[in-house]
Design a protein that fits this description.
The chain has helices at 2-24, 28-41, 46-62, 74-77, 87-101, 111-125, 128-145, 192-195, 199-206. The protein is mainly α. Residues 73-138 form the J domain.
Length: 214
């Protein structure tokens, strides 16, 4: 039995060593994969949970709430579902991850960065007013991302084909001054012929200012 235990521990340490090497190159998926192998070989090896926490947090830190936003996904960083209202659960997740990522105990590369991400997520999601603002922004972008394809073209340099009255972006994100948006609200609905034309042709034919996403 002792021989079997020593064999498992040696194998786990080999997997863990590979995971650390991958983490230094920021290969997060590879790091997690080998760390999981190490944990399966020896579940009692505490270091595997620490390095998995680093990889998971950094992966979540790279995600954004939308392809159109630079706002981090704080819920993903704390491994929570979006709009979680249970503050006790938020606190539990924060304490668990903070304990695993505390740089004084976790000596793996990027542990300090992962710890800061968790702390920032806690700072937002534990504060009712900050959380409410964040949830509102998250909801706004979720609505925008779920809009039917073809109704919008939210890419740099593309003409916006969505009526301004339904626009979900703040006016500051448009090259067109807000004062000039009013006439666009009265544009006629597109005819069947218009639908077959490019956005540039539609705008040109209607002789209205072009709205470009910056």
């Amino acid at each position: 039995m002792e021989f079997h235990f020593n064999t498992n521990r040696a194998e786990a340490e080999r997997w863990l060593s590979t995971a650390v090497k991958l983490l230094t190159t920021r290969d997060l998926h590879g790091t997690k994969s080998f760390a999981i192998r190490a944990r399966e070989s020896d579940p009692r090896l505490e270091a595997t949970e620490q390095i998995i926490a680093v990889a998971d947090t950094l992966l979540a830190g790279d995600s954004r709430i939308s392809g159109h936003s630079q706002q981090p996904d704080w819920y993903a960083i704390l491994q929570l579902a979006h709009y979680t209202q249970n503050l006790e659960l938020v606190a539990t997740q924060y304490r668990r991850l903070a304990l695993l990522l505390n740089p004084h105990r976790n000596r793996f590369p990027y542990a300090d960065h992962a710890f800061r991400l968790v702390s920032e997520a806690w700072n937002v999601l534990s504060n009712p007013s900050k959380k409410a603002l964040y949830d509102h922004e998250l909801s706004m972008f979720n609505r925008f991302d779920s809009a039917p394809s073809g109704s919008t073209q939210l890419r740099k340099g593309r003409v916006l084909t969505m009526w301004p009255s339904r626009l979900l972006l703040p006016p500051s994100r448009l090259l067109l001054p807000p004062s000039q948006l009013a006439p666009l609200r009265h544009l006629p609905l597109l005819s069947r012929l218009d639908r077959n034309r490019s956005p540039e042709q539609r705008v040109s034919g209607l002789h209205v200012p072009t709205v470009i996403i910056s």
